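To: structure subgroup
Subject: Chain for Friday's discussion

All,

I'm putting the inputs and outputs inline so they're searchable in the archive.
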Amino acid sequence: MIPLSAALAAKGMGLGAVMALIIGSAGASLTEVILLKSIFKNKMIIAFLVVILGMAVGAGYLYQWLF
């Protein structure tokens, strides 16, 4: 993920968006969701995804605002 993010940042993508991409893709990967589906019910998985993606977007906005 880091080489892809570095290439996107070099092409002009905002660093906040790159940060959100890194956090969101690591936290909400398909393999992790499949693993969690075997343990939790659907409501818990949806709550997990909402929290992860919300934190990714929030961190992206915060990073863009600070730097």
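Points worth raising on Friday:
The longest helix spans residues 42-66.
The mean pLDDT is 93.

D.
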